[in-house]
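Ticket #4471: structure export looks truncated?
Reporter: QA, pipeline team
Priority: medium

Steps to reproduce: submit the single chain below to the structure queue and open the exported record.
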Amino acid sequence: MKLKKIIISALILAFLGAFIGYKIYNKPHVNVATEKADVVLSADQILADFTTDEAVANAKYLEKIIQVKGIVSETKIENNTGIIILQTNDDFATILCHLTPQETKNISKIKKGRQITLKGICTGFLMDVVLVKCVITN
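Actual output as written to the record:
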């Protein structure tokens, strides 16, 4: 009788685990283009927040949709992904904006020195602030 209860409990837990795993795996991706930004700020401000206190900035920005405005210092394509680099007041750190495949098609229209506004998901700070799935909003 006790063994039967243990087996039934184990089966129920296995089923629940499989169900939760399935739901997480099939969670829909966020469409940055249609979502409202959680935070709107300048390239200099987000970099200043990360360099001042990375833990606080991670809590504030990590995995959130950020709309950032700045001056284009460089554009490039790496591994078929367009990257727009925004300059900041810091000579050694920038904002790296990895574009969506759709936006990558338009990267040749972006000129160095132009002010631009992008929206993307913040994935953190290495030596630069990194935004992914970026779309150009202006």
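Status: closed, not a bug. The export was complete when the record was re-opened. Leaving a note from the reviewer for reference: The longest strand covers residues 65-78.
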